[in-house]
Amino acid sequence: MDITDQIALVTGANRGIGRQFVAELLERGARKVYATARRPDLLEASGLSGLAGASWVSGASGVEVLTLDITDHDSIRAAAAAASDVTLLVNNAGISTSTPLLTGDRAEIRREMDTHFWGTLDMIRAFAPVLAANGGGGIVNVLSALSWFVSPGNGAYAAAKAAAWNMTNGVRLELAGQGTLVQAVHLAAADTDMTAGYDVLKIDPRDVARASLDGLVAGAIEILADEPSAFVKASLAGDPTAFYAMVLAG
Fold it and tell me: What's the CA gap between 98 and 116, in Å, rounded?
């Protein structure tokens, strides 16, 4: 996949990893980037100065701002109609409620699933025909090392990301016939607003975008963006007793 040929749409583009995807796509010469968020005013206000020498002003520097709430079917349909030239879909939008499964608010658990699983799936269902019409293209799903394990206090998030991971594997098979590359990106923690309260090793969010786009160029369907993700995946092959003893020990 040649990034300079792509017309991309990035969800959750107002901050964190999504913001860096937009910047990296622009720097690599993508023809157009649709930057989306539930509140487009946040996109306009955040700017891209210092990242790629570009502005978030709608239409400038190959960026077009769109309103998009991935938990709203009408919003998704409107985005798919407005961005009918998309060749690369980056599903980055997400939330983290730090909700445990047994004692947490069921509404918050459902919100995690509605965002990470159903929202992402609905985006893919809406944009799959768009990608097919434009030659196949690609889909990037930003997932997590928590697709494969659970840490204390993150039960709802981990369950939703696990569902999103195997959904990613499923749609990869279903979209193979139309020539759409589906990539899963896993990371432990990026230095973003979402992880501000966690005292853990964090990857630069720009490095996540770089790893993903490098992988698209190479045709990679899975990206392990940091060492913790690689460690967790490797641990799946062994007895989980020692691994979860380590998790509980902090």
Answer: 14
